[in-house]
Write a structure and sequence with these properties.
Blueprint lengths: L1 H4 L5 E5 L2 E7 L1 H13 L6 H8 L3 H8 L6 H8 L4 E2 L6 H14 L1
Antiparallel strand pairs: 1-2, 2-3
């Protein structure tokens, strides 16, 4: 259960006596959250928020990344699931989500 809770938090990886911080690509995180809801692993966003110890609003913000233009999502996926630094975050993408929602 502890490893599931830390999916959205930064990870520490030890390599040759060095601690290297890695970060999760927010698109992969959003897809994982959606998969957990769709598969029934959690009933809804509220239950997911409790499981992850984050707010329901935060879950919504992360899931809203899936409303980005598909081409943007594809490009972000090319970065891979684990990132060495916070080159892209949900907060950085939030304004783009809002623009995508306004187009529809």
């Amino acid at each position: 259960m502890g490893s599931v809770k830390n999916l959205n938090r930064q990870n520490l990886v030890t390599k040759a006596n060095q601690t290297v911080q890695t970060y999760r690509n927010p698109i992969y995180l959003a897809k994982k959250y959606k998969e957990m809801i769709d598969s029934g692993e959690v009933k809804n966003q509220s239950e997911l928020a409790k499981l992850k110890s984050i707010s329901r609003a935060r879950v919504t913000q992360i899931l809203n990344l899936l409303k980005l233009d598909p081409l943007i999502i594809q490009e972000l996926e090319k970065l891979g699931e684990q990132l060495d630094s916070r080159i892209i975050t949900e907060r950085m993408l939030r304004s783009h989500v809002n623009k995508s929602l306004q187009k529809n």
